[in-house]
């Protein structure tokens, strides 16, 4: 589902505290739409995946993400907003809060 990971330099140094984990933020583009980004949180110590923070859904525009804020990802929206990864949601699609990325990866 995902294209090759882009080398995003300093973007990969963004940090997020999600639940009990200290994480770094990783961005990937979706293979179905290379203008949209997936956000993955990885453990800051050993780089193991902690959570996929976003989902691909139809209707997203460039610079937007659909935050997975349910089930094991409960609290994800608050963590991403608090750590300046995304702006507060401006709309909802299929119960997903839709947010603009604070910085568009290049």
Looking across the biggest beta sheet, what order are the strands in?
Answer: 1-2-3-4
Contiguous low-pLDDT stretches (5 residues minimum) are 1-12
Helix content: under 10%
Given helix and strand content, the structural type is mainly beta
Main pleated sheet: 4 strands, antiparallel
Secondary-structure element string: EEEEEEHEE
Supply the number of helical segments. Answer: 1
The termini sit apart by 20 Å
Mean residue pLDDT: 89
Oligomer: single chain
Assess the beta-strand content as a share of residues.
35-45%
- The value of Rg in angstroms is 13 Å
Describe the structure.
The model is unreliable at 1-12 (pLDDT under 50). The two termini are 20 Å apart. The strands form 2 sheets. The chain has a 4-stranded antiparallel sheet with strand order 1-2-3-4, with helices on one face. A hairpin with a 2-residue loop joins β2 (21-30) and β3. Helices cover 7% and strands 41% of the residues. It contains 1 helix and 8 strands, in the order ββββββαββ.
């Amino acid at each position: 589902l995902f294209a090759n990971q882009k080398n995003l330099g300093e973007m990969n140094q963004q940090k997020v505290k999600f639940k009990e984990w200290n994480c770094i933020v990783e961005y990937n583009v979706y293979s179905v739409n290379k203008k949209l980004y997936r956000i993955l949180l990885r453990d800051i110590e050993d780089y193991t995946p902690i959570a996929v923070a976003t989902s691909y859904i139809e209707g997203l525009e460039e610079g937007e993400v659909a935050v997975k804020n349910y089930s094991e990802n409960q609290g994800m929206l608050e963590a991403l907003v608090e750590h300046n990864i995304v702006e507060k949601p401006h709309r909802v699609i299929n119960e997903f809060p839709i947010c603009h990325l604070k910085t568009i990866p290049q």
